Amino acid sequence: MINELVAQIEKKDAPIVVGLDPMLSYVPEYIQKKAFSEYGETLKGAAEAIWEYNKGIIDATYDLIPAVKPQIAMYEQFGIEGLIAFHKTCAYAKEKGLVIIGDIKRGDIGSTSTAYAVGHLGKVQVGSKEYAGFDEDFVTVNPYLGTDGVKPFVDVCKQYNKGIFVLVKTSNPSSGEFQDQLINGRPLYELVAEKVVEWGEACMGDTYSNVGCVVGATYPEMGKILRKLMPKTYILVPGYGAQGGKAADLVHYFNPDGLGAIVNSSRGIIAAYKQDKYASFGETGYADASRQAVKDMIADINGARANR
Amino acid sequence: MINELVAQIEKKDAPIVVGLDPMLSYVPEYIQKKAFSEYGETLKGAAEAIWEYNKGIIDATYDLIPAVKPQIAMYEQFGIEGLIAFHKTCAYAKEKGLVIIGDIKRGDIGSTSTAYAVGHLGKVQVGSKEYAGFDEDFVTVNPYLGTDGVKPFVDVCKQYNKGIFVLVKTSNPSSGEFQDQLINGRPLYELVAEKVVEWGEACMGDTYSNVGCVVGATYPEMGKILRKLMPKTYILVPGYGAQGGKAADLVHYFNPDGLGAIVNSSRGIIAAYKQDKYASFGETGYADASRQAVKDMIADINGARANR
ipTM of this model? Predict the structure, then answer.
């Protein structure tokens, strides 16, 4: 699956991914009103509003971007109805040719990780039939439980040609609390990075591994070191834009081949119409505002890469 | 919520929790056949089989036990239909007076952890209304992202009188890969334990905190130390039975007050009828086999505690 992602990034010249992390407060009033008039102020109403909102953004941006990254928590907060919207969003984005990175940050003991991997990336056996539960292309995985919590995901990736991004150094302010702790003089995240390389060797694509990692845009010095530690590992980079990461900081997340990193923006794209810069699009032009924000982000990242 | 859990444990004299982690292969043939004849060999059919199976186990054991711990991965593998079965299972067990420990091992950056906490423990705002998505009483939380990934759960616990169990030392074979790494001479899991105490101070029940932790039964020496490091922290103990943890090993997970730990068994209870020991119950007596296995587990754990 990493081959498909790289091909899409190269074809569209866009090493970016749009984070579909909808808060109900991002959804334009007119979409909320329409959904509530049909389903009431219910979980189904909220889920419908989010689905319509996502659909608009996908329609307006799919030709420019290689992938979307729906954050499942934002759907799970609305219970079953929210998860139906998550599933519909994944399926629709896939129909539009996009790679789906499910930001699910799952991870558990062996048999349980297998269940997550099967549900999100593989197929589950029911009697004589097989079904894909959510059918994402990549998912994010939490490494705290060690190899036997990650290996089942790798096995499912091999079987179904899918991929994962393992959390190495996350973008949030307190990520260092445990991740930066020194073990024999080296931070924990470097140990995790070494394991990511090891796990990834068993699941290589043409140039990069199907086992990628997550390194936040907010820690560029660490990103620079991690890039060198993991030359064949694709880095999913959250934290650009709203969280504070700048394009100039991100050039060292890329390899000399211009590949090796995919930068995520969520709020900065999907709620672009709420920024002064894109206010002229208005509420009903929210999807066009997202399209413009995608173009600006691509120019920003590619500009920084060119000036490296 | 920890007060309710402690009260239930004392009332039933049973410091145990039944892990509702159904694999389709555990579900008796006759239940699978009935579900498939109604819904076909579909995800809905699988979910229906699991729900019927769970219902039988809950009906046969609820008067003996304080709590159930459904493992969401086992439902999530069947997609939306599976999650509907998870939700029904939680609601039904709650109707029967049981405390619900959702084994979800979520954890993310701040705003995303808030969404998980709201969806599983709190209520989400939809227009002028509020809804509980899954409405568990406790959930398990992964600490890899540090304080700002856990704090949102604690805040929701305070608001809605709920609780969490944070992963400290997990029961799986490779848990030591990162968790046991020494930082200034002390293992990472002890640093996490110290943070758990700190997070828990902000969310105390009468004697114990609403912020508990997970320490696997398979590491009893570490459990002994962690018990002393965290005197007011309830320990959820997976790994008893099928994973290899023995009752005698677990006595030091309890405080001198006889409280402080709740031991989980999943397969050993829910698939008891598949063991030689309970084979005489037969497939149709699977729920009665589970009831007997619960009684035996309580006797085993309480016996070990008495001989401490």
Answer: 0.97
